[in-house]
Design brief:
By secondary structure, the chain is of the alpha/beta class. The chain folds into two domains: 2-205 and 307-327, P-loop containing nucleotide triphosphate hydrolases (Rossmann fold, 3-Layer(aba) Sandwich); 209-303. 29% of the residues lie in helices and 22% in strands. The chain is built from ten helices and 17 strands. It has a nine-stranded mixed sheet with strand order 3-4-2-5-1-6-7-8-15, sandwiched between helices. Helix 4 runs parallel beside helix 6 and helix 6 crosses helix 9 (284-290). The chain starts with a helix and ends with a strand.
């Protein structure tokens, strides 16, 4: 589908009738919440949603991790909720720890628990995850990784992440294009941020110097990715936008043999055995699932995002306006 969404492909026009159905169902669903025929759950603690209006990876999870650490530095006790996409647990919600099984609770949830230093709870119905988080932890502010379109979960602040490289593709709604909602939805968000340059007035987030760690011992001192410049490596990415990872490695001087997998793939050992002795580098999201199979030449690439000062200043100002789970008047 991505070849249709992000190219000038006439097949997208054939799918437009289905996009009209998608749009109609979306409008109808939002009207049910607007008319209070479906319930929006409100909470005594502020909820911040970090989402997007397109399908695929835009960098939400790295931004949530940065926001969690930033909130901790400001004296907050944040918690994080997510859908637990791909998790096969028999019941929800699920509290997630750094050593939780990603097959049960989802890869991104485990990654959030490992890197944020915050309690994490997941459930397909995010409102349930928020309630469980508030009941069993001491968090006083909640971050939702995705969930912009999950209107059953009340929110006090919306942050929309935009893919600066791919933008909105062909501009069509699903399934003819990559949009979950029309671009006019951005006007209702409190903050926009772009993963890479998009529009001059939109704050961006940039990648800090990526670090490399061996999967066999994540306690080792991370090494700068640039030290591997000139090496030929296998690059593995099972994300919403694998090319972003491959380009990152190439930009740091590595010679990349790319291996793109579908998002949230559950790996088998043989999936990443390529029949040679070249290093295998993968995203941290993939490493969460493949670590149990790893040998000495498998490495994760740790990527941290850094929002520009304009975003941080505006975010801190909006934080001051949050009070008891509602925007200050």
């Amino acid at each position: 589908m991505k070849s249709i969404w992000y190219g000038n492909n006439p097949l997208s026009y054939l799918l437009l009738p289905l996009s009209l159905v998608f749009w109609t169902l979306g409008v109808f669903r939002r009207m049910l919440f607007f008319l209070h025929l479906k319930k929006t759950h409100r909470f005594p603690t502020p909820v911040i949603v970090v989402g997007n209006i397109t399908v695929g990876g835009t960098g939400k999870t790295p931004l949530v991790i940065w926001l969690a650490r930033h909130l901790i530095s400001l004296g907050y006790q944040p918690g994080i909720v997510a859908r637990g996409y791909g998790g096969k647990a028999s019941h929800w919600p699920q509290q997630v720890r750094a050593d939780s099984d990603p097959v049960m609770v989802g890869d991104e949830a485990v990654l959030l628990a490992r890197l944020s230093g915050c309690p994490v709870c997941v459930a397909p119905e995010r409102a349930q995850a928020v309630r469980e988080l508030l009941e069993y932890t001491r968090c006083n502010i909640v971050l939702s990784d995705d969930g912009l379109q999950h209107y059953a979960m009340g929110r006090d602040l919306e942050i929309v992440v935009i893919d600066g490289e791919r933008g909105f593709g062909n501009g069509f709604l699903l399934p003819a294009g990559p949009l979950r909602e029309l671009p006019g939805r951005l006007r209702r968000a409190d903050l926009l941020i772009s993963n890479g340059p998009w529009r001059d007035e939109t704050p961006t987030m940039a990648v800090r110097e990526p670090q490399v760690l061996p999967l066999l011992d994540l306690s080792e001192e991370p090494q700068p990715l640039s030290r591997a410049s000139g090496e030929t490596v296998h690059a593995v990415a099972g994300t919403g936008n694998p090319q972003r990872f491959f380009s990152l490695l190439q930009d740091h001087g590595l010679k990349v043999i790319p291996h793109a997998f579908r998002d949230h793939r559950v790996y088998r050992q043989k999936d990443l055995q390529f029949g040679d002795d070249l290093p295998v580098l993968m995203t941290e999201k993939d490493a969460v699932k493949y670590a149990r199979f790893a040998t000495g030449n498998y490495w994760l690439v740790r990527i941290e995002m850094l929002p520009d000062p304009a975003f941080v200043k505006k975010f801190d100002q909006l934080l001051q306006g949050l009070k008891h789970g509602q925007k200050a008047a």
